[in-house]
Amino acid sequence: MNFRIKPLAAAASGMFISALYVAGAAQAASTPAVQDMGATPATQTHSISIILQLRNMDNLNAFIAATTDPSSSRYHQFLSVKDFAAQYAPTDADIARVTTELTKLGINVDEVYQSHMVIRATGTTAQLNTFFATEVHNYQESTLSYKKPNQPITIPGAVSDVVLTVTGLDTKPKAHPMLKNVSNAKAEALTLDSNTVKLLQGTTTSTGNAPGQFTVADVVDLYNIKPLYKHHINGEGRKIGIATLATFTPADAYAYWDSLNISYPANKITQIHVDGGADTNGADETTLDVEQSGGIAPAARVYVYDAPNSDQGFIDVFLKAAEENKVDTISVSWGAPEIAQSTDVLNGQHQAFMQLAAQGISVFAASGDAGAYDINTYYPYPSCSMLLSVDSPASDPLVVAAGGITLANTQVHKYGTVVVPQDRPWAWDYLQNYMVSNYGDAFYYAHYFPVGGGGGVSVNFDLPKYQ
């Protein structure tokens, strides 16, 4: 396997996004105005992450492929962080070159990862502007305040061969949690409750709750997991990682498991706050991830890595998990349309996924909530686009993209019955005829399209050999 980000993908992405802004009045009108509030004060300090370029990439790709090949002598022969650094990361001399250039301007080096993948540093606006040949400005977009360089940064020539990218100067949130439900999609048009939504007979085990209201206990029954528990396959000795851009309250998860009489080890949840930790915007998604994964594997430990919703946070959350090398798997339910992601984020995340893969840590990401038209998570009706797009980081070849399922069911609504005859990938397109007939095209496309498990063709990654 030879995974590389296509060099022209960033330019193409920029053209696609630009086209959306000029395609028509509706698109332009729906885009919040961005105000440049002027240069960020020169003495303001910033914490940055300098992501370093891996060495021997072809060999690393071959090694990762071999660890998943049962016929290979390297099958499941994963690396420690120290061995990964020695074979594929920048050398001590490379690290010294970068730190020397930083300290020349008075930029403080706070930490160098053992993996040699990240240098954490702190500097003033003036120092960082000089080092990266840019000017950081403050911006206002509706109620959102953030800072970012007013022109692309330039890596100094003395270290351009070893520095991949830098994050921390652009603080605008770009990712969003993969959370879509009827309650925020004009639920008044539907009457979805336990009396009107029933699983079809013979399709699955009966539960005490209707679709959309399943608990962990329901999922255990629906997927016949109890026999695994009887054989003591319950997560004992395993460590689940949750990568997220929102913090949460662990007591909520404990209370949920207690309500279902789920037994779990003491101090089951460990929180790791990356880059100072995240805020609570999106905490419901984090809570859901912890409750579901920790409930299905009741004896497993859960490590929650939370970082601010920024380019820096969305790379560092994976690099920190790789640096600690504690968990067996990582699950993430945040993302953004691939073509709207910056090359910096895609490159940095991909290197983190390479390290995780080499260390034997599997990464699972939500495939997206907008089917094959993921860009419409940013541009909803009437500004929506039929441009095919997929969600990142699920589109990375080293990540397992995971969608949802709609179980066979019958639904009694205000104007009639809707039947889903068999289990199918999660999507709301089965409601189209009912919605259009009773509420019109505009209502359906504004609230129920495109909704479903993501999928499609990446513009950034070639087709991997395993496909």
Blueprint of the fold:
Blueprint: H1 9-22, H2 25-29, E1 34-39, E2 45-52, H3 57-67, H4 81-88, H5 92-104, E3 108-112, E4 118-124, H6 125-132, E5 136-141, E6 144-149, E7 163-167, E8 176-177, E9 197-199, H7 216-222, H8 226-230, E10 239-244, H9 250-259, E11 269-273, H10 283-296, E12 301-306, H11 311-324, E13 329-332, E14 334-337, H12 343-358, E15 362-366, E16 391-392, E17 400-402, E18 405-406, E19 409-413, E20 416-420, E21 424-425, H13 432-439, H14 441-447
Parallel strand pairs: 10-12, 10-13, 11-12, 13-15, 15-17
Antiparallel strand pairs: 1-5, 2-4, 2-7, 3-4, 5-6, 8-14, 9-19, 14-16, 18-21, 19-20
Helix pairs in contact: 7-10, 9-10, 11-12, 13-14
Brief descriptors of the model:
single chain, 467 residues, alpha/beta, six-stranded parallel β-sheet, 14 helices, 21 strands
What does this protein structure show overall?
The chain is of the alpha/beta class. 30% of the residues lie in helices and 21% in strands. The protein contains 14 helices and 21 strands. The chain has helices at 9-22, 25-29, 57-67, 81-88, 92-104, 125-132, 216-222, 226-230, 250-259, 283-296, 311-324, 343-358, 432-439, 441-447; strands at residues 34-39, 45-52, 108-112, 118-124, 136-141, 144-149, 163-167, 176-177, 197-199, 239-244, 269-273, 301-306, 329-332, 334-337, 362-366, 391-392, 400-402, 405-406, 409-413, 416-420, 424-425. The chain has a six-stranded parallel beta sheet with strand order 11-12-10-13-15-17, with helices on both faces. A hairpin with a 2-residue loop joins strand 19 (409-413) and strand 20 (416-420). The longest helix has 16 residues, at 343-358. The chain is globular and about 70 Å long. The N and C termini lie close together (11 Å).
